[in-house]
Amino acid sequence: MKFSSRINSFKARPELFFDTNKIDTVDLIKRMSSVKGLTHVELNYPEHFLQNDIAEIKTAIEESSLKVGGIALRFQKDFNDGEFANPDAELREKAIQTTLDAVNVCRELGGDTVTLWFANDGFDYPFQLDYERAYADTVDAFKRITSENPDMTFSFEYKPYEPRTFSLIGDVCSTLMLLDDVGQKNLGITLDFCHMIMKKENPAYSLFLSAQRNRLVGFHLNDGYGHFDDGLMLGTVHLLQTLEYIYYAKKYKFDGLVYFDTFPKREDPVRECEQNIKMYKILSDYIDSVSMNEIDSIIKSQDAIKIQSLLLSLITKKTSL
Ligand SMILES: [Mn+2]
């Protein structure tokens, strides 16, 4: 299994690890590499390259036990009105150029995936966005970056809202529609558990839809109550849905990066991350102990009582139903 986590989480509770308040990306990588079971790091571009240059970051990663999974774009404040769907052609071009720069950084660090989440491509008011223009510009931008970089995998992470009231592409089906319209094999989907819960999607069903179209690239796992992107620890709110999600990940033989997109603030982020890895492994092992076939027969029975027995057996640590 490949496990990664959010670098910025490791800024939490600095007094538990650091002697100084001046913490840069290299320091955060050092702290991350102390997490038992963590295998990969993903960096935000340009955010994590502002205090340290690529050479320093490369050295820090080589000296750690971690490998680079990929780079995630974080567009800066110029992009208030949108990234790939910005109405200003110059800013749209700047967003594309920033993405192309991120591709080069990703390649240099040995990563293979560039993940895009657009904070500002969306709208807050009726009549605020020309949907037709915004969608067409987004398709064109993706066609360009994917066709110019066939060796790189790109992944679109959808989120229904926040910070915009509506995202332009905010659910699993409009993401799959976008991917179809772009028409490139090297563009896939990153499923964020909390984002799916916010959209009232059932995460395992969104996983199925993405796998069905052969577009599954990455997982962002976490939990939340559904109003905001809470970034809570895996399985703490939606345990049975998390179990179902991991079952389908196994069924479709997902071998990408499992990235814990959680936001520890009061917790020790090292222990919090270890707990997420533990939760994933325990749920995954539990599925194996019951067996994929047995769970498949429960699904086929469509019997809610049998499904509840599955949950009961998990919480009572029995593996026979
Ligand atoms: Mn995420």
Automatic annotation (TrEMBL):
Residues 37-277 form the Xylose isomerase-like TIM barrel domain. Gene3D superfamilies: Divalent-metal-dependent TIM barrel enzymes. InterPro entries: L-rhamnose_isomerase, Xyl_isomerase-like_sf, Xyl_isomerase-like_TIM-brl. It holds the Pfam family AP_endonuc_2. The keyword Phosphoprotein does not apply. Coiled coil: none annotated. GO terms for molecular function: isomerase activity; metal ion binding. Keywords: Isomerase, Manganese, Metal-binding. This is Xylose isomerase. It comes from Sodalis ligni.
